[in-house]
Amino acid sequence: MTKPRHFLTLEDLSAKELEEVIQRAIDLKAQHKAGTTDEPFKNQVLGMIFEKSSTRTRVSFEAGMAQLGGSAIFLSSRDTQLGRGEPIEDSARVLSRMVDIVMIRTFEHSIVERFAEYSRVPVMNALTDDYHPCQLLADIQTFVEHRGSPKGKTVAWVGDGNNMCHSYINAAKLCDFKLQIACPEGFDPAPQLIAENSDRVTVTRIPEEAVKNADWVATDVWASMGQEDEKKKRLAAFAGYEVNHKLMSHAKKDAIFMHCLPAHRGEEVSAELLEDENISVVWDEAENRLHAQKALMLFLMGK
Ligand code: CP
Ligand code: NVA
């Protein structure tokens, strides 16, 4: 049996494939708005495994599958055998004989890798502790729609060196942009990722330095899912890292702001900036999850 294509990090796509997926996402969005979408996924089923909460990811995958004529099954670890200790390898072999494509949101990245190894069908990472590649598809689509190709641009990441930051590092390589990261000491992205991309990725402790001349500024929550106990400590460590109009004044004049959401106003982003539609494109970014993932699923399923 030929091995299916998986999407566990952005690096599972070549630069050219990524560009094609983004263009397809833009086309699918236009078709959706024109009411001309057809049903390439008729009779096909997406399995959606969630071990963490979600609004956007769940709804965008489920709605996306429905729009293309297929259906989706929501599988929470709270009420499947996964939550009672059935091995991931067994779950992968069983589920992948029943559904046509799977998405997983979980904790350790090795869980999606193990699932993919035993799966007969494509597996998509819908967020792990280490990466959130589906969000980057939407973010790249949003930049392309607002400002054109990200190639050669300067992007700033301000905040935690977390799963989103790691996927931004992958995106820097694939889309050929410069990434200026600002994070407090102790919250750096994985050193190996930095080392592998040292030609285009820099890390500073000074948010103004990271944002300087940026075309695109992004941030995310300071305490990710699973880090709830660290919230107090993190609030203190990230003081001075709020992305607001003052910080944005160091970026290019036409710079745009992104946040994968949910947002925490007054923490990683000011309410005024988040609501400033001249700069903040967060609602387009959220909407694009729908179209970017439809394009991804079509690609992985060879349609
Ligand atoms: N951005 C994102 O993945 O949102 P959800 O956690 O709501 O899915
Ligand atoms: N870094 C955040 C992203 C949420 C979409 C988390 O992992 O909780």
Kindly summarize this structure in a few lines.
This protein has 303 residues and is of the alpha/beta class.
Number of strands: 9
Query: Which ions, cofactors or small ligands are bound in this entry?
Result: phosphoric acid mono(formamide)ester, norvaline
Beta percentage is 5-15%
Number of helices: 12
* CATH domain class of the largest domain: Alpha Beta
Q: Indicate the percent of residues in helices.
A: 40-55%
CATH architecture of the largest domain: 3-Layer(aba) Sandwich
**Helix/strand order, N-terminal first:** HEHEHEHEHEHEHEHEHHEHH
| Overall 3D shape | globular
**Could you give the distance between the termini?**
19 Å
GO biological process, one term: L-arginine biosynthetic process via ornithine
Pathway: Amino-acid biosynthesis; L-arginine biosynthesis; L-arginine from L-ornithine and carbamoyl phosphate: step 1/3
Main location: cytoplasm
Family: Belongs to the aspartate/ornithine carbamoyltransferase superfamily. OTCase family.
List keywords for this structure.
binds phosphoric acid mono(formamide)ester; four-stranded parallel β-sheet; alpha/beta; Rossmann fold; globular; 2 domains
Layout of SSEs?
Blueprint: H1 15-34, E1 45-50, H2 56-67, E2 71-76, H3 88-95, E3 101-105, H4 109-118, E4 123-125, H5 133-147, E5 154-158, H6 163-175, E6 178-182, H7 191-196, E7 201-204, H8 207-211, E8 216-219, H9 231-237, H10 245-248, E9 256-259, H11 271-274, H12 282-300
Parallel strand pairs: 1-2, 1-3, 3-4, 5-6, 5-8, 6-7, 8-9
Helix pairs in contact: 1-5, 1-12, 2-12, 3-4, 5-6, 5-12
Bound molecules: phosphoric acid mono(formamide)ester and norvaline.
Norvaline binds at residues 127, 132, 162-164, 220-221, 224-225, 260.
Pathway: Amino-acid biosynthesis; L-arginine biosynthesis; L-arginine from L-ornithine and carbamoyl phosphate: step 1/3
Organism: Saccharophagus degradans (strain 2-40 / ATCC 43961 / DSM 17024)
InterPro entries: Asp/Orn_carbamoyltranf_P-bd, Asp/Orn_carbamoylTrfase, Asp/Orn_carbamoylTrfase_sf, Asp_carbamoyltransf_Asp/Orn-bd, Orn/put_carbamltrans, OTCase_ArgI
